[in-house]
C-alpha cells in the first residue's frame, strides 16, 4: 500500500458498500478508515459480515464519519433523495466525494453538489464503475478508427434484470421517497452514459421517450426507453427495465463496421473483459448460412476489478489535490455527471409530457 494512501469513510451499509469496501481495501493507494450506518448495531454487523479490519472505525451516524479528521474522502451509496444533503455536507467538511449513481434527482440538485465541492476544493466523481475498465480505451480506439469503423451512425444500449417480487416490494429503488427515479436512475444512467461515451460526450439535440413506460402503484418507473437525436443525424436508443431477463448490451454501428459487447456494466470475469468488432474490411461475400469471416473478439486483461480501478483513479486525483503539488480538483468528472443527468432529466420530462420531444439545454 502506498505511504500516502487515501483514507476512505463510507456513509451507509447498502449492498453496494460490500463491493466498495472490498475495492477500497484492494486499491494500492487507498485504505478503509471508517464505516457508518444510522445505527451502531447495523454498522457492526456490516463490519463482521464483510470481514473488515479491526482497525476500521465503526460509527452509528453519518455525521461521525464527516467529523473524523482522519477521513480524506467519502463514498456515498445512500438513496438518491439523500445525496444532496450528504454530498454537500461532506464537501463542506472538506471530504472528497465519490457519489453513487444516479448522483441526484435532477440537474439542479447536482449543480448544488458540484458547487459545494468546487467551493471547498474537493474532488467529485460518480460511481460509474465500468468506465474504469481498461477495455474502454481499447473500444474508443476502434470507434475512432475511420478506416475500420467509419463514421458513427447509431448506438443502442439495453440493461435489464428481473429483480423478483421481494425487490419489487421492498427495494429502495422502487420507493418514491428514496429512489424516485427507479429503473431510469438505477440502470438507465448506465445506458445514457454508455451512449454519451460513444459520441465523445456530445449532447443530443433532443430526446423522445418511447411509448410503454411501466410504473408501479407509487409512480416509480420500472421500465422505460428513449431515443436520442443529434443534429448531424446520429441516433441512439436505450431500454432499461426491472421486469425482463438480465441483459447488459451495447452496440455501436458505423458506416464501415460495428462494435458490440454483452457485459458492459459488469464483465463476466474480473480479470479480463471482451468486446466484438466487425468491419467490411474483413468480410468477403457472405455465403448462404454462414458469415465469412466471423466477428473479431478482443480480450483485454486487467490487474484489478473495475471497481478497484475506479477507487484507485479517484484516490490518485485526491492525492494530487491534498498532496505537495496542491493541484485543483479535476473538473472532467463532474462535467460527465452533469451531461448524463441532463439527458436523464429530459427522458423523464418526455415521459411526463406524454412522450413529446424534449430539447436538451446545456
TrEMBL record:
PANTHER family hit by this protein: OXIDOREDUCTASE FAMILY, NAD-BINDING ROSSMANN FOLD PROTEIN, PTHR46368
Ranges of residues in domain Gfo/Idh/MocA-like oxidoreductase N-terminal: 6-125
One term of GO molecular function: nucleotide binding
Domain (GFO/IDH/MocA-like oxidoreductase): residue spans on this chain: 139-259
Protein name: Oxidoreductase family, NAD-binding rossmann fold protein
Pfam families the record matches: GFO_IDH_MocA (PF01408), GFO_IDH_MocA_C3 (PF22725)
Similarity comment: Belongs to the Gfo/Idh/MocA family.
Amino acid at each position: 500500500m502506498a505511504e500516502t494512501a487515501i483514507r476512505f469513510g463510507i456513509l451507509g451499509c447498502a449492498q453496494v458498500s460490500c463491493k466498495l469496501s472490498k475495492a477500497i481495501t484492494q486499491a494500492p493507494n487507498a485504505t478503509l478508515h471508517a464505516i457508518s450506518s444510522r445505527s451502531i448495531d447495523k454498522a457492526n454487523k456490516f463490519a463482521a459480515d464483510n470481514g473488515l479490519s479491526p482497525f476500521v472505525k465503526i460509527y452509528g451516524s453519518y455525521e461521525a464519519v464527516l467529523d473524523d479528521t482522519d477521513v480524506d474522502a467519502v463514498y456515498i451509496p445512500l438513496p438518491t433523495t439523500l445525496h444532496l444533503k450528504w454530498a454537500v455536507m461532506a464537501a463542506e467538511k472538506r471530504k472528497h466525494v465519490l457519489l453513487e449513481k444516479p448522483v441526484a434527482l435532477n440537474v439542479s440538485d447536482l449543480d448544488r453538489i458540484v458547487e459545494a465541492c468546487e467551493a471547498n476544493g474537493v474532488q467529485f466523481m460518480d460511481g460509474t464503475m465500468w468506465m474504469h475498465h481498461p477495455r474502454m480505451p481499447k473500444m474508443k480506439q476502434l470507434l475512432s478508427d475511420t478506416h475500420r469503423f467509419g463514421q458513427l451512425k447509431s448506438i443502442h444500449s439495453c440493461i435489464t434484470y428481473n429483480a423478483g417480487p421481494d425487490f419489487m416490494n421492498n427495494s429502495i429503488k422502487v420507493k418514491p421517497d428514496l429512489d424516485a427515479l427507479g429503473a431510469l436512475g438505477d440502470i438507465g444512467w448506465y445506458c445514457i452514459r454508455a451512449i454519451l461515451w460513444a459520441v465523445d460526450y456530445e449532447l443530443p439535440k433532443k430526446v423522445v421517450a418511447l411509448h410503454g413506460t411501466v410504473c408501479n402503484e407509487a409512480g416509480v418507473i420500472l421500465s422505460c426507453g428513449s431515443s436520442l437525436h443529434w443534429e448531424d443525424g446520429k441516433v441512439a436508443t436505450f431500454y432499461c427495465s426491472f421486469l425482463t431477463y438480465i441483459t447488459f448490451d451495447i452496440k455501436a454501428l458505423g458506416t464501415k463496421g460495428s462494435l458490440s459487447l454483452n457485459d458492459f456494466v459488469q464483465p463476466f470475469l474480473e480479470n479480463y473483459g471482451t468486446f466484438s468488432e466487425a468491419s467490411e474490411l474483413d468480410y468477403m461475400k457472405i455465403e448462404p448460412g454462414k458469415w465469412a469471416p466471423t466477428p473479431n473478439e478482443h480480450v483485454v486483461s486487467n490487474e484489478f476489478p473495475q471497481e478497484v480501478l475506479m477507487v484507485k483513479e479517484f484516490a490518485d486525483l485526491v492525492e494530487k489535490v491534498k498532496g505537495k503539488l496542491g493541484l485543483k480538483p479535476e473538473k472532467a468528472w463532474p462535467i460527465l455527471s452533469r451531461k448524463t443527468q441532463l439527458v436523464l432529466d429530459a427522458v423523464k420530462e418526455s415521459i411526463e409530457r406524454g412522450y413529446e420531444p424534449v430539447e436538451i439545454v446545456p
